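Table S5 (text form). Sequence records supplied for joint modeling of the two-component complex.
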Amino acid sequence: MIERRPGLTLLSHAILISGILIVAFPLYITFVASTVTQNEIMRPPLPLIPGPHLIENYTRALFEGSSKVVPVGLMMFNSLVMALTIAIGKIAISLTSAYAIVYFRFPFRMLCFWTIFITLMLPVEVRILPTFEVVADLGLLNSYGGLTIPLIASATATFLFRQFFMTIPDELLEAARIDGAGPLRFFWDVVLPLSRTNIAALFVILFIYGWNQYLWPLLITTDKEMNTIVMGISHMIGIDDFTDWPAVMATAMLAMLPPVAIVIFMQRLFIKGLVETEK
Amino acid sequence: MEKRVVFRQRLLPFLLVTPQLIITAIFFLWPASQALYQSFLIEDAFGLSSEFVWFENFENLFSDRLYLESFKTTAVFSISVTVLSLGMALVLAVMADRVIKGTNVYRTLLIWPYAVAPAIVGVLWLFLFNPSIGLVAFWLKQTGYNWNHVLNGGQAMTLVVFAAAWKQISYNFLFFLAGLQAIPKSLIEAAAIDGAGPSRRFWTIIFPLLSPTTFFLLVVNIVYAFFDTFGIIHAVTKGGPGKATETLVYKVFSDGFVSLDLGGSAAQSVVLMVIVISLTVVQFRYIERRVHY
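The corresponding structure-token record, covering 572 residues in total, follows.
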């Protein structure tokens, strides 16, 4: 505190609270809409306090599908598989390739490094059509493989681990070698345990990244059995025909729940991951 | 930077990098080169044969009024999202840094939108502003303002800008707050002793010292508005009404997958790649050097 200005402090709190209210408003309305009936939604304005139909709406969304969509429970399972595969896959292949690049000297080492680096510059969005063709040619449409493998290569994670490995003291490697440890043993017993926090932080970021994918599943999953929740919800909103709004809003809440819970309850890891992947 | 001590094995490192290299080659390098190659081809109407046409696709692209419009749309969209979300985040971060009690609580309550998928953000905002049932649309109508983003292009743009900015506030807030907390308190105290009030301290000390963070966020936000907002636009407006909210990335998608114009879509992909690469280079060059006063 530099000087006492109670008025200014009060104003700061007021601005912060109104900021939080603005940020939370769409979420609150979504929650309210997921607890009322279709009739209440169709006759605006929407009430500002939650209604009594919470359990009914969520069960309907979770376990009953329609002609256009499968039950949301299945979509959430698909999303979970996708998010976990992407997060674990990215971490695994980035760990090994970063380990190879830092702890070995081999021909074409820098070429490998730059090849990986290039992926940083080519987000899915700019090469969708040809990537889609490759996946179609490989027969990976409507499969977990097609959903996840193309998103697994990541320069960011490789960089993060490379930076971290560079900070591991050389003395550890010397000591391990004197004790007769080979490269795999050193990786397993020294590097991996040391990287635990980094892996956890990265996992949080990558899980959110995988869960929130939209464009890619939209293209790859033509079979509704394979829809993920984030993209499946767009099939639930008809433009002209009937939209079951309470169920859509319940689905939106369910789609937000896992990643938001992770951010709130693993805040330290989340912030660490966010700051480090952007370096 | 290189390690002094390394292992001597020859084969093992190749095995370790192979998975990543294979995936990169199949799903990154090959499609990117395909995009490059296809951008020089024009297919006939039935997709049976194609002709190598050098830069004709690009010439067509840049003489296409719709494409140039889309550039303008993207520029308006990106700048509005960046200014709006950076501005709000900065105000909130400065306030959260000022108050002594509750900084962490405020932070928790402000960062969660980062975790919400862009498409879900779109659904949330679409519901609020739905012309027939949306709560905010209803309030606007009561004040006499006719809200209908399904017909009005300007309103559609406003809606996607709000939705996109809303999601990005949390990210910017987090980085601004970290930047603010890294500023040495002694500087601010010295200025206070010299009689500078809070607003003067902000503009002459805090804001300049925050410039590296601001610049970094500027680039990140532009990249976000360009590439990560597809879900919002697809869920809220599908690029419409007309072409009012069709950004460059959305156009690649709609030309490629809806109109099946392969050569044109590939040429657009190439233009986008050039944009991403230049943004990445800008980021790397200037982030390293930092902006200093």
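Note: The first strand of chain B starts at residue 41 and ends at 43.
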